[in-house]
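mind reviewing these tokens:
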Amino acid sequence: MSTKRTVNGHPYIAYSQVRLSDEQMIKKSEDFKNLMANRRSVREFSTEPVPLSVLKNIIATAASAPSGANKQPWTFCLVSNAELKSAIRNLAEKEEEESYSGRMSERWLKDLEPLGTDWNKPFLENAPYLVIVFKRVYEEDENGKANNYYVNESVGIAVGFLLAAIHNAGLASLTHTPSPMNFLHQALKRPDNERAFLLIPVGFAEKECWVPDIKRKSEEEYLTEHF
């Protein structure tokens, strides 16, 4: 049987899915559920190095995410240079200090209290890697600008893949969103069609690392069934 064909003038390849038994599906889905249930946002990172190949595999996993019209509207900037990490920290802390001292509402600050966050961001230097995710709003060639489709949704899905892959590799991460994030565009000299989406420190947690004892919503709160 042929593994290739043409549909409306475009090449297609055959898709083969590995079928699992009900028991295998239940076991694999439960194992992954339990794995991800232990993922936490970490702010205390070790400076211990991580093999570069691990980060490249993780980012390749994120880049395999689906996207609107397969435009893949993302760029992943991987930063390990100490001077650049220090510069990013300084710029981020400047924005964060302004946010904590005036931009954030009282309600926002109160909601953050249990998490123990403030404008100090040492993890931006301590973590061996920073992954800065940029969304590509449009593409540009000799014919001019062409907007990408469902950019936020596509990049959000890719980030989900990224966070799962980081945790699956035995590493810790944090979704850091200093606001505004224009300084990342400038610090990393990104083109005009890109906007900073998320900053993610990646590495090992410190041997003694504490995280807030948060509670997640129950199934009754996050799931509705319609049969």
